[in-house]
Amino acid sequence: MNSTAKSKSQIAYHWIKARIDDGTFSPGYRLVFGQIAQELGVSTVPVREAVRRLEAEGLVTYEHNIGAQVAMVDESDYQHTMQTLALVEGYAAALAAPSLPGEVLDEAKGLNAELTACLDNFEPSRFTALNRDFHRVLFGTCPNPQVLDLVNRGWNRLAGLRTSTFSFVPGRAHESVQEHQKILDLFDRNAPAGEIELAVREHRLTTLETFLAWRHP
């Protein structure tokens, strides 16, 4: 491969990988060489080389009669991560609630308003990013650094799995913003810590249940 072809292959590789990383190309998304080549203004050859590299890294799979697609999520890993996150994030939010600054709560409300606005012209990757910000604002002031570390690890693991239920089941996004509002209302009225913990936990587990229902209709 000459240097020009190699450069084009690298461009295609980074372009595709960036879209896998940010969720634009979600697990199961079919990578059509011709469409990608047209988007990048190159032939299909460097695109094919880029996809082979991504396949070697485990980010893409190739099946006969299906073609190349973004690798699917490891279901058991996702399930275990979500179950653990439901416990630790719920507890982190409950610990954070008593001393949550008003400006932090206002920031969370603003983010949920943005999430609501996203529902009209739904973009899973943007919704997922805003959703992550919403949750981080609420649990970010948790006074227990070890609990906070466990929550951050869970979110980082989800990012590594490159999944978003909102990509598969867009209807979950509508339910999610409603559940966010319920959680915000609990913070607003200084609800007991146990109530807040349960609401956050159920919110996380409902997302998991939605994903599993989609995988096993």
From TrEMBL:
<dbReference type="InterPro" id="IPR000485">
    <property type="entry name" value="AsnC-type_HTH_dom"/>
</dbReference>
<dbReference type="InterPro" id="IPR011711">
    <property type="entry name" value="GntR_C"/>
</dbReference>
<keyword id="KW-0238">DNA-binding</keyword>
<keyword id="KW-0804">Transcription</keyword>
<dbReference type="InterPro" id="IPR000524">
    <property type="entry name" value="Tscrpt_reg_HTH_GntR"/>
</dbReference>
<protein>
    <submittedName>
        <fullName>GntR family transcriptional regulator</fullName>
    </submittedName>
</protein>
<dbReference type="InterPro" id="IPR036388">
    <property type="entry name" value="WH-like_DNA-bd_sf"/>
</dbReference>
<dbReference type="InterPro" id="IPR036390">
    <property type="entry name" value="WH_DNA-bd_sf"/>
</dbReference>
<dbReference type="Pfam" id="PF07729">
    <property type="entry name" value="FCD"/>
</dbReference>
<keyword id="KW-0805">Transcription regulation</keyword>
<dbReference type="Pfam" id="PF00392">
    <property type="entry name" value="GntR"/>
</dbReference>
<feature type="domain" description="HTH gntR-type">
    <location>
        <begin position="6"/>
        <end position="73"/>
    </location>
</feature>
<dbReference type="InterPro" id="IPR008920">
    <property type="entry name" value="TF_FadR/GntR_C"/>
</dbReference>
